[in-house]
Amino acid sequence: MRKENSQFVTGFVSEAGSHIDNRDYFAYMETDDMACYVLAHGLDTDQEVRSAEMAAKAVLENFMEKPFMSKRRLKEGLRDAQEWLQFESRRVRLKASLLAVVTDYTRMVYASCGNVRLYHFRGGRLNFRSRDHSLAQAMADEGRIPEEAATLHEERGNLLEYLGKPGKSRSFLSKKTLLADGDVLLLATPGMWGNVELAEMLGALEEAKDPNALTDTLEEVLLSRQLRTVPNYTAAAVYIDKIFQEKPKNRRKLIKRIVIGALALMLAGGGAWIYAAKAAQKKAEAIEDMIQYGNQGDDYAHMGDFEKSLKAYSEAKNAATKANDKISKKLYVNKQNISQAMVDGDGYVDKGDFENAKVSYEKALKAAKVYLPSDSDDIEHKLESLDDYAAIRKQMDTADLKFQGQDYMGALTLYNKANTAATEAGYDAAIEIITKKKQETQDKIAALKREIQEIRAGQLEARGKRLLEAEDFDGAIDAYNDAEEIYQAIGKLESVVAVERTISKIEDKKIAKQQAEAATLAKEQEAADQAAAEEAVAEQAAAEQAAAEQAAEVNEAPSKTSGQAASGQPASGQPAPDAAKDAAETGDAAGGA
After folding, report:
1. Over the chain, what is the mean pLDDT?
2. Which residues pair with 11 in a beta bridge?
3. 51 in Cβ contact with 42 (< 8 Å)
4. Which of 427-441, 536-550, 559-573 has the least mean pLDDT?
5. Which residue, 587, 566, 583, 565, is CA-closest to 574?
6. What is the mean pLDDT of residues 549-564?
7. Minimal CA–CA distance to 77: which of 92, 93, 99?
8. Which positions ≥6 away from 312 have C-beta within 8 Å?
9. Which residue in 40, 384, 389 sits closest to 190, CA to CA?
């Protein structure tokens, strides 16, 4: 039994955080041949019904009915969970994110809807992680934000797909992945991965020796953040210490029979034993090659790589021909035809010829039910995906028409939508085409924006020129500076240099004008000062003349007084007896002397 010959060890931690209820739910089941691990995170607020538990149990019940490694059965399990949540949404719409991992102890396949994540570690490094159905992840896929920023972006909880969504929900179904000894699977809800960085996960993984130690360390890292509100968080780790080693199909008995027969022929045939021994050796080598190439072809077919399985089955068929094993030859011819039909179908899908792709897949499915029954579910899934692929192609064609009509923004929007749909559907060929067309569209948009910026810069230069002619130097410099900023932004360095030279010339003219104006003002001031000085001199001369005239008048007044006295009349026109008396006395005194 596969489980007894492998070693898968599981441990987990799940807590409510700061909340009363824990709306996360983890459960797993290990059978003799397969195991299923399911982690769900409730998105609603219903207090009576646990949407995460309902969804997880729906998937596990589907697995219990008949353990499987089929993407189709996984899809059915998620569809059952979706329908159950929709049916029970009476009071509140029940919603949940879910991740389911199924393994046969050698390979694994997983399905996800929402933002519960799977981390696959190998050799102490991250091998891959599952992708979310969030707006942040879509923005990262479209190149609008870096991939590492999606974990911390504010839109990481804005889900585009989840279980319980009205109508149909779209889930991601992975291809089969080969496991290896020492691999570690970590299933985590947003409460865990949103607060523990990848580098911290890798550090915890390096120190932890078992799954419980890993989940406990991750819990300690989360709680060390000391968040005001701690969300529900769950981490489940699966340590794959030893995978089940599949043995080649038991054809060694046939080899022994050939060798025994050769020995018997050698003993009975006398001299012919040398030829028989060589023939037996060649036949044994051919059978060994047939087994080896046949197993390789089966492994490649299980992984969905039909181009490699086609080559391996061709080698196995040739080896069977050399060994003269008609039964095995027929088997590998049919497996080769299945691989060829799948390769043809994939080629038609790449070209958008879905009618012929359907014919090829149906042909492969019919033969696979007989010769590759374990892969028939994968082929059925491809058939079911053709309608989605056709819708994506139609969207791409519409985007092409908008591109041809020079509606580049509309084309880019449709390319982004088609890219998101192709990513969810696993339409790799379309993703490659869309990526190239998105780049072409973005280049066109960038070229148009550059042209618009160049026109704007030219207009600013023309405005600067007009302002310069009007001798509005400051306005002209501002206009040229704005034009220079635009040229800098679009990387037109030669124009930047030319504008800087123009600005330098304008500044020189501005300085020259300012100097000329200053000289003019100085001359005007000098003339004004001279005029003021002359005016002051004239005023002073006038004042001196007035003073002289006044003095002359004062001098004339005594002369008139003397004249009046000589004539014997008082100066005031009044009689002066006292003055005459005094004069007589004076004359008498002079005579006596």
Report:
1. 86
2. 237
3. yes
4. 559-573
5. 565
6. 73
7. 99
8. 293, 294, 296, 297, 300
9. 40
Alpha-carbon distance of 375 to 381, in angstroms, equals 10
What predicted TM-score, i.e. pTM, was given to this entire model? Answer: 0.46
Measured in whole angstroms, the distance separating CA 591 from the mean position of its chain's CA atoms is 142
Q: DSSP letters along 313-329, please?
A: HHHHHHHHHHTT-HHHH
User: CA-CA distance, 180 to 245, in Å (whole number)?
Assistant: 10
If you average pLDDT over residues 327-340, what whole number do you get?
A: 89
Task: Evaluate if residue 584 carries a pLDDT over 60.
Answer: no
Tens digit of each residue's pLDDT (9 = 90 or more) over 238-285: 999 999 987 655 555 555 666 565 555 555 555 455 556 677 778 888
Q: Are 32 and 43 in contact (CB under 8 A)?
A: no
| Residues in Cβ contact with 192 at an 8 Å cutoff, skipping those fewer than 6 apart | 218, 222, 233, 234, 235
- Which is it for the CA torsion 226, 227, 232, 235, positive or negative? negative
Instruction: Return the percentage of the chain with pLDDT > 90, whole number.
Output: 46
Nearest to 112, CA basis, from 52, 198, 39 = 39
Dist CA 498 CA 502 (whole Å): 6
DSSP-assigned letter for residue 146: -
Q: Are 2 and 32 in contact (CB under 8 A)?
A: yes
What pLDDT does residue 419 have? 92
SS (H, E, C) 500-569: HHHHHHHHHHHHHHHHHHHHHHHHHHHHHHHHHHHHHHHHHHHHHHHHHHHHHHHHHHHHHHHHHHHCCC
Task: Report pLDDT for 589.
Answer: 43
CA dist., res. 96 & res. 320, Å (int): 52
**Lowest-pLDDT choice from 143-157, 252-266, 527-541, 548-562:** 252-266
Looking at beta carbons, which pairs linking 430-436 to residues 24 or more positions away fall under 8 Å?
Answer: 430/389, 430/392, 430/393, 430/396, 433/396, 434/396
Alpha carbon 289 to chain centroid, angstroms: 48
Residues 409 and 445: beta-carbon distance below 8 Å: yes
Closest listed residue to residue 13, CA positions, set 244, 182, 191? 191
The CA-atom distances, in angstroms, between 447 and each of 262, 416, 433, 450, 453 are 77, 20, 21, 5, 10
Q: Which two tokens stand for residue 113?
A: 């809807």
Cα 317 to Cα 335: distance, rounded to the nearest angstrom = 9
8 A C-beta contact, residue 144 and residue 77: no
**What pLDDT sits at residue 572?**
46
